[in-house]
Structure formats: structure tokens, C-alpha cells
Design a protein that fits this description.
Number of helices: 0
Structural class: mainly beta
Helix content: under 10%
Oligomer: single chain
Mean pLDDT: 94
């Protein structure tokens, strides 16, 4: 098994939007719950969102609820995290991870490289 690949990060100003992508080769992500996590400088890694298998449900941390939306494109075998109204405190390296149910940080053993998001004026 190989780690998932995150992409789509970048440098944006407060209030801007980004869409992160989580992709895999060799297996379908639609059979898995995909969790999104982030680690800000000097802070521990935290969960921010999860989309369940076949998009049966979505979950968000209080800090991102109403601003972030997780979704899937089955044809592209990709899970997205649409991030709107970005704040400086959203600055972090973002990671995704797959499991049969929404994963927590302590359960993930195959972290990818992540994608860096910087929100600054």
C-alpha cells in the first residue's frame, strides 16, 4: 500500500479560496472514508474533515464548519476539500488519509507528503 497524494495548496490572502485534492492509484477511494488533517507550525496534527465511503456523510471540525466542504469525483478517483473564507489560522500542511471509517490522527500510519497552505496578507 502507498500513501495518498495531496495537492492544491498554495499562498493566498485571507478570505480567498483553495481546493485541495487527495488522489490514489491502484484502488478506488470510493470504498473508503477519507479524512482531512492539518498541522500548523508549532501545533499538533488535527482532524478537520471526513467524507465517508460513497459520500454517505461528511463531518467537519468546529473551526472549519461552514467554510470547508469535502466532496468526491469518482471518475477521477479523487477527493476534494474546498476551502472558502480562509483565515490566517488555516495556515498548515494538509494531509488526507483513508480507512473504512473516518480515521483519527492516532490511527494513521501512512501519511503522505501533504500540501502546504499559507494564508497571509
Amino acid at each position: 500500500q502507498v500513501p495518498l497524494v495531496e495537492s492544491g495548496g498554495g499562498l493566498v490572502q485571507p478570505g480567498d479560496s483553495l481546493r485541495l485534492s487527495c488522489a490514489a492509484s491502484g484502488f478506488s477511494l470510493d470504498y473508503y472514508a477519507i479524512g482531512w488533517f492539518r498541522q500548523a507550525p508549532g501545533k499538533e496534527r488535527e482532524g478537520v474533515s471526513c467524507i465517508t465511503s460513497s459520500s454517505r456523510g461528511t463531518y467537519y471540525s468546529d473551526s472549519v464548519k461552514g467554510r470547508f466542504t469535502a466532496s468526491r469525483d469518482k471518475e477521477k478517483n479523487t477527493v476534494y476539500l474546498q476551502m472558502n473564507s480562509l483565515k490566517p489560522e488555516d495556515t498548515a500542511v494538509y494531509y488526507c488519509a483513508a480507512d473504512y471509517s473516518c480515521p483519527v490522527v492516532s490511527m494513521v500510519t501512512n501519511w503522505g507528503q501533504g500540501t502546504r497552505v499559507i494564508v497571509s496578507s
